[in-house]
């Protein structure tokens, strides 16, 4: 592994900071390429001191900077993106960072002949699923600029595979949670809202019957999947990364009530709610990556609450 260096866009972010230590354990050097808009400078600084991590404080929108910084790298992980909420508020910035950024990174990786590129795609490429579990070959119906850019990213990877032999894996992450997460994502704000109420002795308030569901996957497992994708024998496919279990909002509330140790029952706020449900078909992850989740939602959420997130 002495000469294996991973070029890691967005490596200073929430998921990246869980992946980097795993890469170092496996003997990779890591070159983080991040504009540090949301990155954790202190945490990155500590990693840089170890000697096997470097930080390039730069933006994926600048193709020349990406090409230059990727020189000498054997592998690429591309996680830099604007979040789903922000993409609706500012579609221009979203297209700029997510679409132009995707293309800059993929084109540079193809030019430089890297061994493997791992792309953070998203379960949101499916839109509202017609059936559960959601399989990689199901019809895609991305609804926001963020989701559209993730789907386009997968298509662009196919283009550079055909044109230049680029070897890639696109990981369709489901609902990621875990220690160190910012509280801006919709579903993490649901978790925080519930927990804050519980800690104040108040019951969680749930819209409708709480039937909306998500496939919550712990960031530790997400990080493991990225390392497996970097090294898998099979490639050039999108792969769902989830647990395969749909946890309803009502179930989540009960898990959090138990974790906090509160003596309350959830309150249901009767109103019409668009019930969306999510659960990953996890068969391809097993077959292509040898990946299965190791942390259950109950254990992961309980640990998050008891250790202060």
UniProtKB/TrEMBL annotation:
Signal peptide bounds: none
Top-level taxonomic group: Bacteria
Domain NAD-dependent epimerase/dehydratase: residue ranges: 8-242
One Pfam family from the record: Epimerase
Similarity annotation: Belongs to the NAD(P)-dependent epimerase/dehydratase family.
Protein name: UDP-glucose 4-epimerase
Originating species: Cellulomonas phragmiteti
